[in-house]
From TrEMBL, chains A, B:
Name this protein carries in UniProt: LacI family DNA-binding transcriptional regulator
Record key words, sorted: DNA-binding, Repressor, Transcription, Transcription regulation
GO molecular-function term, one example from the UniProt record: DNA binding
Database matches in Gene3D superfamilies: 3.40.50.2300, lambda repressor-like DNA-binding domains
InterPro entries tied to this protein: HTH_LacI, LacI/GalR-like_sensor, Lambda_DNA-bd_dom_sf, Peripla_BP_I
Domain HTH lacI-type: 2-56
PANTHER family, per database record: LACI-RELATED TRANSCRIPTIONAL REPRESSOR (PTHR30146), RIBOSE OPERON REPRESSOR (PTHR30146:SF95)
Amino acid sequence: MPTIKDVAQKAGVTVTTVSRVLNNRGYISEATRQKVYQAMEELHYQPNEIARSLHRRKSNIIGVIIPTVAHPFFGELTNFIEFYAYQQGYKIMVCNSHLNRDKEKEYIDMLKRNQVDGIIMGSHTLDVEEYHNLRYPIVTFDRKIGDFPYIASNNYQGGTLATNLLISKGCKKIAHICGNLTLDLLANQRSEAFQEITNQHGIESVTVQTNMDVFDDDQYESILNQLFSEHGDIDGVFATSDIIAAYALKVCRLFKKEVPHDIKIVGYDDVKLASIFVPQLTTIRQPLEDMAALAVEVIVKQINGENTSLENVFPVKLMERQTT
Amino acid sequence: MPTIKDVAQKAGVTVTTVSRVLNNRGYISEATRQKVYQAMEELHYQPNEIARSLHRRKSNIIGVIIPTVAHPFFGELTNFIEFYAYQQGYKIMVCNSHLNRDKEKEYIDMLKRNQVDGIIMGSHTLDVEEYHNLRYPIVTFDRKIGDFPYIASNNYQGGTLATNLLISKGCKKIAHICGNLTLDLLANQRSEAFQEITNQHGIESVTVQTNMDVFDDDQYESILNQLFSEHGDIDGVFATSDIIAAYALKVCRLFKKEVPHDIKIVGYDDVKLASIFVPQLTTIRQPLEDMAALAVEVIVKQINGENTSLENVFPVKLMERQTT
């Protein structure tokens, strides 16, 4: 095991300097800081976490990494995270990672430098290598990465509720528009449930994936146009977000299909907008506020060195409205 | 004018300690820090900004104060602000102020302590006393406060375009749902334009204000229900946001009024959702991305001690779709 002395020697600085960099204390030039980081990385140096946390200066900042705050689901989630973080004396730094892995990596580096105390990670990036072997306060959202605690709602239950509802309402051919299944997200379990249940009931099904940037709204309309053109006999849609469901409503109007008479639609999330659309969306409600509150609780416990539960899965709820 | 010596004496610490607090450098206990701040406040001490900025350690964090990121307009705005800030090497810290003045004040204190380098302020709080006499990098959004540079779109032009369109389409009695006019926002100019133009044309008008928490969605439906109950002959609605316009669409459906045949609706903002609603919303487009980019440019220039333009007003654009 390399020691702090080895790091100092390799970086050509004193032990005090390394200690200062680790604890983000005193004045250190950016060049020196970089030299020390490099030496630490080359030697795979792991500072003694407990000793470190006793000394380190807290920033009281939590980093929140999400695909984009412009999407209603993440906008509402971030609002709640900020609300509960503030109750605990923390501010939040928001990173819209989109699919930018480098940007996400910078936040992890900030965590290493104690510029943020912890990270709530709900990004959709494909590679998550950077997270492995990290021993910092991190909680993931709808993703399972290494041994980090995670927050999710029961996606399999959500997929089951949505699919069963459409079948019980008499749908014979159901389309499912889901995210990109290449991404390792727990939300994929919605699609698994959909597939299994339609198979069990011998119901014809079509599954369409969005592209990698699942929140690129522009694609939804063309995906749905193509779907309805190729499968004129679809009589049920299970969309993996309320926004996609809203586009389905719009495209139904273009194809002169009446909702719910000709075609039934179920969304997902129950963002505020779900109840404004006409007809009001039937959807699967994720308990966003509770999930945000727990994400903050888990990250703050980690920051304070307390134990936290690893798997935190919330039940979802079917909100039956006017589209089914 | 009090000096750094006076502050040190009052706080019972050395001049070096005060300097460290000012420049956020070296180790300072929280108790000492608080003593120094208190002394500074009591003495109304204003550090020499230029000398200070030469010494101070930048945080590369911009504070963004908005009513709530859960509202689509501010969600999209924050997404763009983060995008452009990141290009310039800045991270953003998001504060959903709602109507909480104390919360907002904390961010100003962070600015004073160099924990954030600047603030983009778009909150809707009633009192803005804390901002006066501040000499820090601040840019306001849709508000004019003291001598701070501000970013806005041309609200008067927006109100004019919306009202003229409704009149030209034959509306004889137009309702206007606006924010709370007690709040000192530039958006109030939309209502001024509405009032002037309907008066000029001798068009009957009803103006309804939302309550202070203008983004409390729950109120919209009851406001519109009451409006349509009391004024069954309204044939035009100018709503001050697309979300309110969407609620108007919903309530029209309840009152069996066909849009645009019986009643015409114009929204405001042109958030992404405006084009998903059926029928698609006619609205006034604010150039959100350009406004966000300039807000970042102005704040970064201030942080770097460069001059910036004080009044930054963007033209708006009428997006005629299916509700008029």
